[in-house]
Design a protein that fits this description.
The chain has 437 residues and is an alpha/beta fold. The chain has 14 helices and 15 strands.
């Protein structure tokens, strides 16, 4: 594949073609309820393996160890050997040698893996639980492999970068249900005590019927890595995975999904009927430093009952910043991250304690495994991912896109092969043209 071949990056026409593998009928009605199984009991040690040794992966490993004393980190895997070795040093320092806790870092040399197949080696290393924190592109395949191997999973968000990946995850979600295995999502606000109580009050009618939602995720720029002469194009793109849609899904998918997930949650986890939007890149003009993703999106999602969510996200330095969720109702309003509800009775604010939602995700995962009250977040994490992909494609193309079109799209952003070599450099999407990434 030449560096100028753009055939692997479908335009709107290919995005909206009918998919012969579309999900139909009961397969979309997968239960959110927990399956029942006892995997471990009492003081049994749960062995945990981490796939993806970047900052989020290291953080998830620490959160998992903080969640419960009777767990051990026993395997690590990453595409890059230097990231793997750095992770080993960082995690051993953080997890061992604490006066009030037995050492929880237990990764030996023969349980530290690197390369494209490192995830398989982690899964096959004797672990009970797998933490999937690699770039989003790889999650559908890695999740499928873990569930097929009988492992419980913590899966970071988003769970895919295209509709093909989302359908795969929905199928794996059903497989996990049948095999009595856990899938806990990294959509962390669902595990925040204040957010949970605020949304419960809204759904119990505290502000009447929801009439509109506004989602803001307005933030600054992120990291980038300069090319080294010895890196191939594949390595360069994977080292800078955030800036390539095939790897991250673009920042509306990788980051703004947190906001969109709360909108979906507020709407009872029922997807919208359609969306349209606009976006582009005003400051990310330097290539290849910023890859080909956008730096701003604005999307309007419409549900069948007429409720609209207005979603705004921007990654630019020196601009106004805000991250919060505004919910407007027939009898009041709420601000989700502020944990506030205002109605005729006055203003309510969450009064309770708020343990770390990042620890709580793993605490509830382990508790479910031990009790048999297993958690399966697979449906909503898939729907929230597709909600973000749908918005991205509406902005990339300049067209209105329905939920059914998004779900059934044959779009597959996977490269032709996984090896350290040449890769095409994708064009920047230009709405209303054939050049739509």
């Amino acid at each position: 594949m030449s560096a100028h071949d753009t055939s692997r990056f479908p335009n709107r026409r290919r995005f909206l073609q009918s998919s012969t593998g579309a999900l139909v009928g009961g397969s979309l009605a997968m239960a959110l309820g927990a399956a029942r199984s006892v995997h471990a009991a009492g003081s049994d040690i749960l062995k945990v393996g981490l796939v993806g040794c970047g900052g989020r992966g290291n953080g998830a490993a620490v959160n998992a160890m903080h969640a419960e004393k009777n767990v051990r980190l026993t395997a690590l895997g990453d595409a890059f050997p230097d990231a793997l070795e750095q992770s080993r040093k960082v995690l051993e320092k953080q997890l061992n040698g604490r006066p009030d806790q037995e050492d929880q870092y237990a990764v030996t040399d023969d349980h530290a893996f690197h390369g494209f197949d490192a995830y398989k080696q982690v899964i096959d290393s004797g672990v009970d639980v797998v933490l999937l924190c690699e770039p989003p592109h790889f999650r559908p395949a890695h999740l499928r492999a873990a569930i097929e191997a009988g492992k419980h999973v913590f899966c970071e968000k988003p769970v895919a970068v295209d509709a093909t990946g989302v359908r795969s995850v929905l199928e794996t979600t059903e497989l996990a249900r049948k095999k009595n295995l856990s899938i806990v999502s990294g959509l962390c606000w669902r595990y925040d005590a204040g957010v949970r109580e605020t949304i419960k009050r809204i759904q119990d009618g505290a502000i009447g019927d929801i009439t509109a939602i506004q989602e803001n995720y307005l933030t600054g720029t992120l990291w980038t890595r300069q090319r080294k002469p010895e890196w191939s194009e594949m390595e360069y793109q994977m080292r800078n995975w955030y800036y390539y849609t095939w790897l991250s899904g673009d920042h509306i998918v990788e980051q703004h999904i947190h906001s969109l997930d709360k909108a979906l949650w507020l709407m009872g986890d029922k997807p919208p009927a359609s969306c349209f939007g606009l976006g582009g890149r005003q400051v990310r003009t330097e290539q290849p430093k910023w890859g080909h993703i956008y730096d701003h999106f604005a999307v309007c999602y419409e549900w069948e009952n007429g409720v609209r969510t207005f979603a705004y996200t921007r990654q630019m330095a020196g601009c106004y910043g805000e991250t919060d969720d505004y919910v407007f109702g027939s009898k009041g309003r709420a601000v989700i991250l502020k944990n506030e509800v205002t109605n005729a009775d006055g203003r309510w604010k969450f009064p309770g304690e708020k343990p770390s939602m990042y620890d709580e995700e793993h605490r509830e995962l382990f508790a479910g495994i031990r009790s048999g009250n297993l958690i399966n977040n697979g449906v909503y994490m898939s729907y929230s991912t597709l909600l973000a992909i749908m918005g991205r494609e509406a902005c990339y193309t300049g067209q209105k896109i329905t939920w059914d079109e998004a779900l059934n799209s044959p779009q597959n952003l996977s490269p032709a092969k996984y090896e350290w070599g040449d890769m095409p450099f994708p064009p920047v999407a230009l709405p209303g043209t054939a050049n739509q990434a």
